[in-house]
Amino acid sequence: MAIAQQEAPGRVIPILESEFSDFETEALEFLRGNRVEENFIGFRLKQGVYGQRQPARQMIRVKLPFGGVAADQLDVFAEVAERFVPLRKGHITTRENIQYHHVPLPLATEALKLMAEVGLSTREACGNTVRNVTGDPWAGICDDEPFDVTPYAGAFIRYFVRNPLTQLLPRKFKVAFTSSEADRSITGIHDLGFIPKLRPLNGKSEKGFQIVTGGGLSIMAKHAMVLYDFVPMDEYLRVSEAVLRIFERSDELRRNRSKARIKFLVHKVGIDKFRSMVDAELEGEWASKEIPLDDLLFFDDEQADAPDPDPRPSEPSTEDADAFGKFLETNVTPQVQVGYSAIEVKVFRGDLSPEQFRGLAQILRDYGAGRARMTPGQNIVLRWIPTRQVYDVWKELRKLDLAGSGAFEIEDVVTCPGTDSCKLGITSSMGLNTAISEKLAEMKITDPLTRSILINASGCPNSCGQHHIAEIGFHGAAMKSSGKQIPAYHVLLAGHRRNGNLRLGTLIRSRLPAKRVPQALERIIRFYEEHREEGEHFNEFFDRTGKQRFEQVLKDLTLPPEYSEESEPTFIDWERDQHYVLERGEGECAV
Fold first, then answer.
1. How many angstroms separate the CA atoms of 262 and 572, rounded?
2. Are strands 484-493 and 472-481 parallel, antiparallel or unpaired?
């Protein structure tokens, strides 16, 4: 296989300036009343511009292929937040994108152009297309990978972006590349997932992928199944195209938009039948074409830009020792490259201010190779940091209010935007995140088994907050009392997403008023701690005790109060000041 020249960091998707001119023209014509709204929606979605529940405001979703971002791109993210976003922040999603909310449509083109100057693309970030291809944030630097999947994830992205085949699929199509069996990019919840493998061939090791398909959360969550145990590297794009060709012409799926994801086809016919369908598709005339893999690969030699791995060591001061020690234990991972470490920065609610974007960019310039990657847990991983300077980086992060320990632990709560912006949102999941975080801080949890519990929440059943795969998950709902509505949450328990062991949570019969969720969370945790056996993890405890025990623990909290002056706060959602009214518009995910 030919070795390509090094490419610019973060520049994976080609930028076409003509698309911005087209977008500006179409947006102005729409605002003048010269475009049918339904047609314009489909057009802007392909450019990553999504309607919000607030009139005349848009969400802009920026694709970060495999979560990768460069320092100069973080600087531009800061500028966009300052110039175009009323709340002055960008939001990391569970699919490793950056989203901006409440952007006026007339300003969207200018924001897109600004980001394009540093190689940032929103192309096909929304709509019925191949969405952002996510990846393992530790790809290329972890000690458990057969090989670095980054170049091949890049090739997949380049092959299918703007591909005529993928411009009007029955629904969105989500893809992930992971680095190892640990599956840190959670391939099991994707339409198509790639796990790197090696097999012996003529006395050497041949690279390839195990390919899984049919995963997905939302309504009727499904675990992906193995399509092929091993696909050689020169065939993985062809197999992927075969799957997408089958999906694209699935007219039965198109007839019911709520069940138009490929998981419904795969699980209806079964994986063996679906594999036969793919095999048959690969016999088609189209499959004889040449796919220029070498021209598509994305090569970025990060190590070439890395600083000296053995600089002057920095040692924590006495007053910093405890806090930095916890950070070192939970947020820092030694790279396979001796002398370097990767730092996972815990980002509260996934939100970054302009000052934080710029501060992170400067840290990457001063201490790293100018690269970072977003995580499915809404955090950011700083790569190629000399291990001897991790303390210096921690001090810089502290200035940005980003030095918190406990990444991928119980306080690292994941939530979607909910009713802050989403048309489909039922509840204020971001407000719930704050309330849960305050409760957990109050509880001062130190027990290692309890700290391994993960908490996710979504503002509706669609699982943008991935509530199905947390040990404790919540999704938005509504209930009534005294003729009034109450924001509420359903509870799922015993999901899991660590170390390649994916498990979908169990919905228990416990619908809770939103304002009681922190109290319910504390009960769940204390019930587990008080009654578990020695060394018993939360999910093992759940399996042993059964969901009915948890339902009984929460039973009194599920009863809605009668409306009164004393109970009035229960009728108001988190971070809101008005009585709750369920307002759910028509989302654009299926447009």
1. 38
2. antiparallel
Q: Which residues have a Cβ under 8 Å from the Cβ of 472 and sit 6 or more positions away?
A: 453, 454, 455, 456, 491, 492, 493, 521, 524, 538
Nearest Cα neighbor of 69 from 367, 305, 372 is: 372
Spatial contact of 329 and 405, defined as CB atoms under 8 Å apart: yes
What is the predicted pLDDT for the residue at 55?
84
CA atoms within 13 A on the CB side of 477: 16
What does the DSSP assignment read for 48-91?
TEEE-SSTTEEEEEEB-GGGEEEHHHHHHHHHHHHHH-TT--EE
Which pLDDT does position 587 carry in this prediction? Answer: 65
> What is the 3-state secondary structure of 116-183?
HCCCCECCCCCCCCECCCEECCCCCCCCCCCCCCHHHHHHHHHHHCCCHHHCCCCCCECEEECCCCCC
59's tokens: 């969400």
| Cα gap 234→151, rounded to integer Å | 13
End-to-end CA distance of the chain: 41
Would you state the pLDDT for residue 416? 97
Provide the pairing of β-strand 501-503 with 472-481.
unpaired
- What lies within 8 Å, CB to CB, of 495 at 6+ separation is 456, 467, 468, 469, 470, 471, 473, 503, 504, 505
- Integer Cα distance of 177 and 146 in angstroms: 13
Could you tell me if residue 553 is left (phi over 0), alpha (psi between -120 and 50 degrees) or otherwise beta?
A: alpha
Residue 111 contacts residue 100 (beta carbons within 8 Å): yes
Structure tokens at 284: 């088609």
CB neighbour burial string for 387-413, b if at least 16 within 10 angstroms, e if fewer: bbbbbbbbebbeebebbbbbbbbbbbb
Contacts of 85 (CB under 8 A, 6+ apart): 100, 101, 102, 103
Q: Are strands 134-135 and 175-177 parallel, antiparallel or unpaired?
A: parallel
Q: Which residues of the chain have pLDDT under 50?
A: 1-5
Place of tokens 């849960």: 436
Distance of CA 122 to the CA centre of its chain: 16
**Residue whose C-alpha is closest to residue 177's, from 197, 143, 153:** 153
Report pLDDT digits (tens) over 111-133. Answer: 999 999 999 999 999 999 999 99
Rg (CA), the chain: 24
Whole-angstrom distance, CA of residue 547 vs CA of residue 39: 47
pLDDT of residue 261: 96
Q: Give the bridge partners for 201, in sequence order.
A: 204
Distance CA 472, CA 524 (A): 9
Contact 343, 330 (CB under 8 A): no
Confidence at residue 396, expressed as pLDDT on a 0 to 100 scale: 98
CB atoms near residue 349 (< 10 Å): 21
User: If you count DSSP H runs as helices and E runs as strands, how many of each does the chain have, helices first?
Assistant: 18, 22
Identity of the amino acid at 440: L
The pair of structure tokens assigned to 352 is 């970054």
Residue 78 carries which side chain, given as an amino acid letter? A
Among residues 411, 323, 405, 396, which one has the least CA distance to residue 356? 396
**Residue environment code for 241-266, b if the CB has 16+ CB neighbours within 10 A, otherwise e:** bbbbbbbbebeebeeeeebbbbbbbb
